[in-house]
Design a protein that fits this description.
Blueprint (H helix, E strand, L loop, with lengths): L2 E8 L3 E2 L9 H14 L17 E5 L11 H8 L8 E4 L5 H14 L5 E9 L5 E2 L15 E2 L19 H12 L3 H21 L24 H4 L21 E11 L10 E10 L9 H12 L6 E6 L4 H11 L12 H4 L6 H16 L3 E8 L3 E9 L2
Parallel strand pairs: 3-4, 3-5, 10-11
Antiparallel strand pairs: 1-8, 1-9, 2-8, 5-8, 6-7, 9-12, 11-12
Helix pairs in contact: 1-2, 3-10
Length: 394
């Protein structure tokens, strides 16, 4: 039995401390699930599959330290109005959580354990709390430091080798040195992301993929006037002489995405968009996490029984321009098939939500470009990568 993508929606992605800062992550997730099952979008409000029999909700979330605790997938399903008898789980594979949720859901369908799965993910990086470790003994005399859970390492195990726990930015500075990717290429790639995202919104591409939240109707971080020249004047963020800036890396973001998965026999009131025909997981040295999608995608293609020469579209999550360029170079593909409707540098990267975003975008791009196969891939902190191959359904 094969698993199919029937529908995908997401919220607009908000800037850190921006328009979605007042919305709890469980509410972001619940609203997106409701929109997915009701067929709602910002443009069409099309009739969908309200009342369908959902077998399970599988939800991605990376931080899980605040309002997204206590299994946010289950909380979102209940808040969305699904029957209490619909089970739900929350997956944490950091930035890959949402795509991992889709992969897990597709396996459940392929094995016959389920016919209909709601998969996706959510992150409010704005509302991620500060945390305090409990002291080993009561009433310590010294100060305690509150640790932000928004992004990156926190409460690091002292047994972990120090070279593995450097910042994500420093990891990618090293990656750029290793692969000879300079600042000029990174800024050009970032400017392209903004240009293509702005054009996609102007073309109406996202109208049936995005459901408004709290008056926000479009991605808040897209800068239509971005250019390599403007990006070139930004100061490096991680090294005084570095190449990575706030302009050629993905921003901190808030948002949610959801994907409706079903078997070929699922009665969902709509035709499937694409079949999931390959999945790949990879891992390597934590410092090289940005390069992990290379092997993940190669494995997914091998399992799909095809090669890169048959791939017509790629959605690669742009955590950093440098790691995206490293992956594209390694695959040896035409860069023009990658992120043709903008990427995370412009749109945003709310960790747990990004996997659902790239998969939903890929399914639509395959139809728009009349391509048969596409790859969705994402890098993951601490040295992992995920990829999914879609085959368009005519």
């Amino acid at each position: 039995m094969r698993a199919f993508v029937y529908h995908a929606v997401r919220t607009p992605f908000g800037r850190f401390n921006g328009a979605l800062a007042g919305v709890r992550p469980d509410d972001l997730a619940a609203g997106t699930i409701r929109a997915l099952l009701n067929g709602e979008t910002g443009a069409t409000g099309a009739t969908g599959a309200t009342g369908m029999a959902v077998d399970e909700v599988i939800w991605g979330n990376a931080n899980g330290a605040g309002e997204d605790n206590r299994n946010v997938g289950r909380m979102a399903a209940l808040l969305a109005g699904l029957p209490a008898g619909v089970p739900a789980t929350t997956v944490n594979r950091l930035c890959g959580s949402g795509l991992d949720a889709v992969m897990i859901g597709s396996r459940a369908i392929e094995t016959g354990d389920a016919d209909v799965i709601v998969a996706g993910g959510v992150e409010s990086m704005t509302r991620a709390p500060w945390v305090l470790p409990k002291p080993a003994k009561g009433f310590p005399p010294g100060d305690l430091t509150a640790v932000s859970t928004t992004l990156g390492w926190r409460l690091v195990n002292p047994r972990m080798p120090a070279e593995w726990t450097v910042s994500l930015g420093e990891c990618n500075e090293m990656l750029g040195e290793k692969h000879g990717i300079d600042r000029v290429r990174q800024d050009a790639f970032a400017a392209r992301s903004h240009r293509l995202a702005a054009q996609a919104w102007a073309d109406g591409f996202y109208d049936d993929l995005v459901v408004p939240v709290e008056g926000l109707t479009t991605d808040e971080g897209v800068r239509p006037d971005s250019s390599p020249e403007k990006l070139s004047i930004l100061r490096p963020s991680f090294r005084p002489d570095g190449t990575i800036t706030a302009g050629n890396a993905s921003p901190l973001s808030d948002g949610a995405s959801a994907v409706l998965l079903g078997s070929e026999n699922a009665a969902l009131g709509r035709d499937p968009l694409a079949a999931i025909v390959g999945r790949g997981v990879s891992a390597l040295d934590p410092r090289d996490f940005g390069y992990a999608p290379v092997e993940a995608a190669n494995r997914a293609l091998a399992r799909a029984g095809i090669g890169w020469d048959q791939v017509g579209a790629v959605e690669l999550n742009e955590a950093f321009a440098v790691q995206s360029l490293a992956c594209v170079d390694a695959w040896g593909i035409d860069p023009e098939i990658v992120n043709t409707r903008g990427g995370a540098i412009a749109i945003g990267h709310p960790l747990g939500a990004s996997g659902g975003r790239i998969l939903g975008t890929l399914a639509k791009v395959l139809h728009e470009r009349d391509e048969r196969y596409g790859v969705a891939a994402i890098c993951i902190g601490v040295g992992q990568g995920l990829a999914v191959v879609l085959e368009r359904v005519r």
